[in-house]
Amino acid sequence: CFSSAMLVHIAISTMIICATAYQLAVEKSLDLTQRMTMASFLGGMSTEIFLFCYQGGHLSIDSMEVATAVYSCPWYTFPTSLKRSLLVIMIRAQQPALLTAGGFAPLLLDTFVSIMKASYSFFTV
């Protein structure tokens, strides 16, 4: 549902992180209050992206554990129709559920590291 909106959000956040870091590094006329405000904004944007990626990683891990949880229940005592339903659940749980940014990148902690590296690379250029 939010895949395309998340892609736009990640792209804009990457640009904002880069621009804020550049302003903090280059602009010499900023007073302490402005510097603290910009640094907290930079931290807030980074934290926001981190939280999306962290939750996406947990969703992926938890979705892979569904098959194990289903198998761990006493399925052998259930009626045949319920056994078939549990089998379907186990088969579907073999593919992890992923939050993605526009289908472009999964929101995982590795993606967060890549975003921060890209922001730093843009900043240094």
Shape: elongated
Our estimate of the beta-strand percent is under 5%
By secondary-structure content and strand pairing, the structural class works out as mainly alpha
Average the pLDDT over all residues and give the rounded result.
Answer: 87
Which sequence of strands runs across the widest sheet? Answer: 1-2
Q: Determine the N-to-C terminus distance.
A: 35 Å
Note the run of SSEs as H and E: HHHHEEH
Number of helices: 5
Low confidence ranges: none
Integer count of domains: 1
Radius of gyration: 21 Å
Pfam families: 7tm_6 (PF02949)
Protein name: Odorant receptor 45
GO molecular function, one term: odorant binding
Transmembrane segments: 6-26
